[in-house]
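Hi all, a correction to my earlier message: I attached the wrong file for Proton-dependent oligopeptide transporter. Here's the right sequence:
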Amino acid sequence: MSGLVLALAAGITMIGTIVALLQGEFTLQTVIMTVTILGVIIPLIYFIVMMTSKKTTKDERSRLTAYIPLFLISVMFWMIEEQGSTTLALFAANRTDLSIGSFELDPGLFQSLNPMFIIILSPIFAWIWTKLGKRQPGTPRKFALGLFFAGLSFVIMMLPGILAGNTTTAVSPMWLVLSFFICIVGEMCLSPVGLSATTKLAPAAFASQTMSVWFLSDAMAQAFNAQTTQFFNADTEIIYFGIFGFGAVAFAVLLFLCAPLLKKNMRGVD
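and the right structure:
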């Protein structure tokens, strides 16, 4: 199946490139749009093939039905998390007070917050889930928590502009530190659980391909980000963070409420 998907992706890319060249419109924007389209189409093809395959049993098809919403939630999560190196990097460079006495911070230093918080929080969350045992939330609600914290990390980024009354004043770097921290708390709820859920919910005949699909959730998120981050600037800062932040929180609440239905379709998978 992987060969078929790659062939289709290559075909779509080739056709798009030829059309763009014939029209004299092969630009960077064309490349970005092509990547976006592929980022959406490739996972879609995988899901269609797995859902319609005769190798997929009735129970496995039910589990895939439960997995698709989790996949989409993970796309929403990664759309926020991956903006740490785009919109938040711009915020660090243009909107953050980088002076500490006579010392000037490099805005690139904020990119080290993500791996640092992952290293710090990973053993803590491993201990929490082990301690909770059977009382810990199920997979859908862990996904909901992950997306909720990711959304909250962007809601918080609205506050510097709101409190200052403008989006030009340099603000404390602690806003970025707090935002990165909260987002990584969300990642601890979603990312490791997503890998586990993928292996458990995957049809036996498509186990390795389904794991590929999980990583395509990040690819799809970055494909969407290639379009959305173009709208981020000083004038749109507050509303940009608000749309992403409150939108993610709303979908997290919806997933939390729908968790029992997804759990039912997961057919015994926790």
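Sorry for the mix-up. The first strand starts at residue 99 and ends at 100.
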